[in-house]
Structure formats: structure tokens, C-alpha cells
């Protein structure tokens, strides 16, 4: 299973989009443990969205779709939509 995900940094007030073959919770832990240079300045991150895919290609395509969305309102509406598989 592969995932596309969105995490949120309250300290930077920004969203980060990515994909992973780990569970979204495991990937979040790596972001918060400073494994990723590009997200170190935003620690702590909160998981806000994920969607699962059968193939890595599908997850990467969805991640690229998310990254092309420059409208914050779109991202926030996606987070509150039924498409979001993350439940708090």
C-alpha cells in the first residue's frame, strides 16, 4: 500500500504534501524526528490528510496533483472532505 499525505505545521502555518510506502503515522514520526531536511524548520507537524493507493505511481501522481494546488482553501476543503482517510 502507498499513500499520498498532507501534514501541517502550526509554527510555520504551512502544509507539506508527500507520498510514502510507510504508514502515514510512521512517515509523520520521521518528519518530526528530523529525517527530512525540508520539513525540519516546521516541527512539530500534524497529520491532516491521507489517501491510500495500490501502486506507487498512483500515489506519486496524486502527490503531484496536490502540489499543483496553490489554493489553500482547496487544500483545507480536501482535508475536511470524504476523500480524507485520516480520522483523528
UniProtKB/TrEMBL annotation:
The GIY-YIG domain is annotated at 1-76
Q: Which domain of life is it from?
A: Bacteria
The residues forming the signal peptide are none
Q: What is this protein called?
A: Excinuclease ABC subunit C
Amino acid at each position: 500500500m502507498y499513500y499520498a499525505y498532507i501534514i501541517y505545521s502550526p509554527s510555520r502555518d504551512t502544509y507539506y504534501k508527500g507520498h510514502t510506502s510507510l504508514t502515514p503515522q510512521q512517515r509523520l514520526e520521521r518528519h518530526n524526528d528530523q529525517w527530512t531536511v525540508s520539513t525540519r524548520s516546521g516541527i512539530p507537524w500534524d497529520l491532516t490528510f491521507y489517501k491510500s493507493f495500490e501502486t506507487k505511481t498512483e500515489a506519486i501522481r496524486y502527490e503531484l496533483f496536490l502540489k499543483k494546488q496553490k489554493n489553500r482553501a482547496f487544500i483545507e476543503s480536501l482535508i475536511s472532505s470524504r476523500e480524507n482517510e485520516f480520522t483523528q
